[in-house]
Amino acid sequence: MLASLEGAVTAAVLALTAIGLSLVFGVMRVVNVAHGEFFMLGAVLAWWVASHVGGPPAVGFVAALVIAPLAVGALAALADMTVLKRVAYDPERTIVATIGILYILQQVTLMTYGPEARPVEAPFNTRLALPWVEWGEGGIQLYWPWGLSTTSYKLFVIGAAAAVLVGVWLLMARTRIGLLMRATQLDREMALAFGIPVERVYAMVFGIGGALAALGAVLIVPIQQAHYLMGGDPLLLSFIVVIIGGLGSLPGTVAAAVLIGLSDGIISVFFSPTLAKILATLLVALVLVFRPQGLFGTGAK
Amino acid sequence: MSDGSKTLALHGGLLVLLFALQFVLPAYHHGNLARIMVLASFAVGYNVMFGYTGLLSLGHALFFAAGMYGMGLAVQHGGAAPVPGLLAGIAAAVAVSAALGLLALRTSGVAFMIVTLMFAQAGYLTVLYFGAYTRGDEGFVLQQAQRVLWGIDLTQPDTRYFAALTLFAVCVLTTLALVRAPFGRVLIAIRENEERARMLGYDVFRYKLAAVVISGTISGLAGAVYGLLFGYVGATFASVQYSIFPLLWVLLGGAGTVLGPFIGTLFMFYLIDLSSAVTSAYMLVAGVALVLLTLFAPQGLVGEIRDRIWRWLP
Q1: Which of the residues A7, A150, A246, A298 has the least number of beta carbons within 10 Å of its own beta carbon?
Q2: pLDDT for the residue B213
Q3: Which residue(s) pair with A270 in the sheet?
Q4: Are B281 and A281 a contacting pair at CB < 8 A?
Q5: CATH classification of the domain holding B28
Q6: B188 belongs to a structural domain
Q7: Transmembrane segments in this chain: where (chain B) (predicted)?
Q8: Within-domain flag for B271
Q9: Most distant CA pair in chain B, distance
Q10: Do the domain assignments include residue B142?
Q11: Closest CA to A85 of A184, A199, A190, A251
C-alpha cells in the first residue's frame, strides 16, 4: 500500500516527463536523447530560483514552478531551431545531435552548478496518517497503523501532474495549436501545403516537450535532490514508458507511466533495484523487437 | 599506380609509420599511442556495422565489455593463461553479438538504435548486479604474473606498444580485405539501398547478421586486449559512454572509411586528454564535437578527403 503510494508519485512525475518525449516523437518523429537533461535542468533551475527568491519556501517554489519550465522550454525550442532544423530531422543525425546536446547540457551544468546534490524545500509538508480499513469486532473499523503515512506534498504532486496532463490533452484536442500539431503529425507535407508553419510548430512542440520534463523535475525536486547526473534514470524510464505505451500515442504513454511507476515502486520492494532495472530494460527491448506498436498500441506503424 | 596498390601503400605506410614511431616518441605519448591503437581497433569494429552496413548501434560497449569480461573473469576466477583468456573473451563477444543480432535485426531505424541501447544498458546493469565477481564500478586489476603471454611480459611499455600495433594491424587489414571482397560490397549495397539489395536476391538479414557478429567480435577482441594490456577490468567500459565513444570516433574520422576510425580516435583522445587537464567537464568537448560534426561535416575528416582529393580511398 505504502509502496504503491510512493509508486503513484513516481508515476505522476514519470507521466509528465514521458508525455513530453512522446509528444516530440509523435509529432516530429524525433527521438530526443537529451530529454533527461531537460528534466535535470528543470530541477537545477528550480534550486537556483528557489534560492534566489526570498521569503517563505512556498514563494520560491511557485516562482520555480513558473520560471523553470519556461526557461527550459525556450532553450529546447532554441536547440530545435539551431541544430535539429539544420539536419532536416533526419532520424540518425538527430539522434547523434541530441546525444551531443545531452553532453553539452550535462557538462555545462557540472561546470556552473557543480557536482553537489542540492535540495529544494517543499512549500508545505505536513505528515498525514492514512486510515486503514479492517474487519474487526462489530463490523468495519478504521484505524491508523504505525508507519502508514504520507505527506501532503506527495498528494499535491499527484494532483498537479494529473491537472497538467488534462491540460496537455485539452491543448491537443481542443485548441487551434493542438489542431496544427495533429495536422503536422498526420502529414508533414500536406500540412506545409495548407500553409501551416511546420517549422514553428516543430520548435513549439520541442519546447513544450522540454518544458513538461522540467515541470516534472520541479515537482520532484523537494522529494529528490537536484544533481547534474539526475537525467539518466528519467530518460531511461521515459523511453521505457513511451515504448511500452506505443510510440507517439499519448493515452498509451500515460497508461504505461502509471503501470511502470506503480510496478517500479512495488518491484523494488521485492527485488534489488538493479535486478528490477535489468528486467525492465530487457522487457522494453523485447517489446520493441516483438511488438513495435507497444503493448497498448493498435494498428500498423 | 592502380587504386589497389595506392590503397596498400597508404595503409601499409601508416602501419610502418606507427611501427617506427615507438622508437622516437617520448614515454607519455608512447603510452597514449598504444592505448589509442587498441581503442581505434574498437572503432574499426564499430565502423564495420555503422560505416559499411549502415546500422547505427548505440550499444557497442556491450561487445567491448563482453570481450573484456570474458577475458578478465576467465583469467581472474578461472585461472586461465592469457591465450585461453583471449579466446574466452572472443567467444563471449561472438555469443553476445550473435544473440543481439538475431533479436535486434528484427527492427530497423530508430527502433534498432533504442534496442541496442537498451541491451547495452541491461549488460551494464548485469555487470553491476554480479558485483561479487566483477567488483562493479570499482573493477578489478589483473596482476603482472597473469599478463605474461608466451613468456612476453605485456606490462612493459615496449611489448605493450607492439601488442597494440599487432592488434591494430590485424583489425585494419581484416576490414580492408573485407570491404574489398564481394562480401563487403554487398554490405555497402545494403547501406545504400536495402530494398534494392534484397531485390537483387541477397539474403539481407544474413549479411547484416554477419556484419553484426564481425563488428562485435572485433570490438570484443579490442576489449579483451585492452584489459590484458592495461591490466584493469571495470564497469565503466560497459557504460553508455563507451557506446557513444566509438560512434564519436568513427563520425569524426569518417564513417565507411578504413582509416577514419584511427584518425578519429587519435584526434578525440588528445582533445579529451588536453581538455581534462583544464576542467573535469571534459565530456563537453565530446558533446560539442558531436553537434558540430552532424551539422557541418557528416562525412568526417577522412570522408571529406575522399570527397575532395583521393576518390579511391576505401
Answers
A1: A298
A2: 92
A3: none
A4: no
A5: 1.10.3470
A6: yes
A7: 36-55, 86-105, 112-132, 161-188, 209-235, 247-269, 281-302
A8: yes
A9: 58
A10: yes
A11: A199
Max Cα distance, chain A (Å): 73
Contact list, A106 vs chain B (CB under 8 Å):
283, 287
pLDDT in tens, A247-278: 667 788 888 888 877 776 666 666 667 777 78
Q: How many CB atoms lie within 10 A of CB B108?
A: 15
The residues in A 77-96 lying below 8 A from B, measured between CB atoms, are 83, 86-87, 91-93, 95-96
Q: Give me the domain span that covers residue B190.
A: 3-308
**Domain residue ranges of chain A, discontinuous segments joined by +:** 2-290
Give B308→chain A minimum CA distance, Å. 22
Q: In a 10 Å sphere around its CB, with 0-12 CB exposed, 13-18 middle and 19+ buried, how is residue A230 labelled? A: buried
CB within 8 Å: B118 and A284:
yes
> Which DSSP helix (H) or strand (E) runs through B213?
helix B204-230
The whole-angstrom distance between B250's CA and the closest CA on chain A is: 12
Question: Which chain B residues are Cβ-neighbours of A278 within 8 angstroms?
Answer: 122, 125-126, 129
Q: Tell me which of A80, A86, A96 to substitute to probe the interface with B (most B C-beta atoms closer than 10 Å).
A: A96
B314 found inside a domain: no
pLDDT in tens, B50-82: 888 888 888 889 999 999 888 888 887 777 777
The nearest CA of chain B is from the CA of A14 a distance in Å of 18
Residues A97, B109: C-beta atoms closer than 8 Å: no
Is the Cβ pair A281, B125 closer than 8 Å? yes
A268 in B contact zone (CB under 8 Å):
no
Mean pLDDT of A38-42: 89
How many structural domains does chain B have? 1
Q: Is the pLDDT of residue B254 over 60?
A: yes
pTM of the model: 0.79
Tell me the pLDDT band of B268, cut-offs 50, 70 and 90.
confident
Q: How far is A264 from chain B (nearest CA, A)?
A: 16
CA of A189 vs chain B CAs: smallest distance (Å): 21
pLDDT-derived band at A294, boundaries 50, 70, 90: low
